[in-house]
Amino acid sequence: MTSTTEPTEPLSVEQLSGTTLLRFATAGSVDDGKSTLVGRLLHDSKSVLTDQLEAVAHASRSRGQDAPDLALLTDGLRAEREQGITIDVAYRYFATARRRFILADTPGHVQYTRNMVTGASTAELTVILVDARNGVVEQTRRHAAIAALLRVPHVVLAVNKMDLVDYQETVFAAIAEEFTAYASELGVPEITAIPISALAGDNVVDPSANMDWYGGPTFLEHLETVPVTHDLATCHARLPVQYVIRPQTAEHPDYRGYAGQIAAGAFRVGEEITVLPSGRTSKISGIDLLGLPVDVAWTTQSVTVLLEDDIDISRGDLIVPSKDAPATTQDIEATVCHVADAALTIGHRVLLKHGTRTVKAIVKDIPSRLTLDDLSLHPHPGHLVANDIGRVKIRTAEPLPVDAYADSRRTGSFILIDPADGTTLTAGMVGESFASPEPVKTEADDDGWDF
Question: How many whole angstroms separate alpha carbon 280 and alpha carbon 201?
Fold first, then answer.
């Protein structure tokens, strides 16, 4: 079933400014039809330009296909088109009259799980695709585990290729029940299951005439209506300093501002603040936004903060409200997803990047590795290889003001970097998670510690 709606006029700036923004990521096993789903969504929601559609039609004909292969709308790399798989994260921006979207289409192969971590790290919703013929497989569990680790608030289970199982309700119900039980055990807060056929268009944008037993929303309808909340009242306000602005011009002889993007919460003129890790305090005397003074600024806005006192602040420092300052520590325990080909081992010397600060660190212990089949923990594996999920203990050369990831996805996360070549090794989430092991006895520091 395909949409027959005539193309609509592009949305105006005024229309777009009145809509909310949803960041979402897609994930699924190989050949589950994920790229086709994304292509169908873009096509049927009238988010594809004419020249793009013509290019896809031409590429499809050159491959001997009669109809346009909508998967080519997202599989842009030559290797992706040749192999019929998704390799890299593809970002797509589109909008409907109800909402704006940033979509991260991530690969399904196990060896590209690291890309799924990248795409879902900033997502407020993750779509996990399942082939109705195969049901929940190991990679489905892996994607559910990553969504839970990254604290993605909403998960959609899209049971695809329902046309190949004769649109049977029993098949959909069994898959939805199995996945919901598994994801709930991981701590996923909200799970919505939708039966679809991306190839035929069933329940993607338009309701399906072949599944009258399903009374829920279509895929697009759910994306347009799922709550997107940013409760600033409960956020821990955090501003990582990116740059110190000191013009020293005749017009601004004494101007000293601290610029950065607000990672969480809100800041107000007159508020008492603390600069970490130094612990120095002051009060906000002004906030500049796009060159104009404002009284308040909030999450994701890039601002320049002015303080009443001239104190030593540089890139990497964190400005926080004095009444809500996190503790600083050199010992971090976290759940991580290892993304590099080289293994992460105990004693590994790394760089840890948290916000805008990068410090030297060493992997002190790897207490456990998660087994995805049954969510059991393999104790003291000694190392983590690519795509492994586990727990690590890290000692940093300098104190860091870290939040628990459960409290703040921005200031509770970090990456580990290879100091030799700058390769990203591991993505980490501070604090407890479903993968938390039993307490491990702390052993004496190894010889060779230099901090």
Answer: 58
Question: pLDDT class for 352, splitting at 50, 70, 90?
Answer: very high
Q: What letter represents residue 232's amino acid?
A: L
Residue 103: exposure state from Cβ atoms within 10 A (0-12, 13-18, ≥19): buried
| Amino acid present at 281 | T
Mean pLDDT of 255-284: 95
Query: Which run of H or of E encompasses 220?
Result: helix 219-225
What distance in Å separates the CA atoms of residue 176 and residue 184, rounded to the nearest whole number? 12
**End-to-end Cα separation, the chain, in angstroms:** 64
What six digits make up the tokens of 228?
Answer: 């997107």
Contact 269, 258 (CB under 8 A): no
What is the Cα 279 distance to its own chain's centre? 31
Beta-strand pair 99-105/20-28: parallel
Alpha-carbon span 180 to 191, nearest angstrom: 7
| 251 pLDDT higher than 50 | yes
Q: Rounded to the nearest 5°, which phi and psi values hold at 423?
A: -70, 135
Asked if residues 19 and 224 have their Cβ atoms less than 8 Å apart, the reply is: no
DSSP class of residue 269 equals T
pLDDT, average across residues 198-224: 94
- Supply the DSSP symbol for 4: -
Which one has a higher pLDDT value, 364 or 189? 364
CA distance 385 to 79: 25
Q: What is the DSSP letter of 141?
A: H
Q: What is the pTM of this model?
A: 0.78
CB-count exposure of residue 49 (10 Å: 0-12, 13-18, 19+): exposed
Residue-level pLDDT at 9: 52
Tell me the mean pLDDT in the region 205-234. Answer: 85
72: nearest Cα among 115, 34, 118, 35: 35
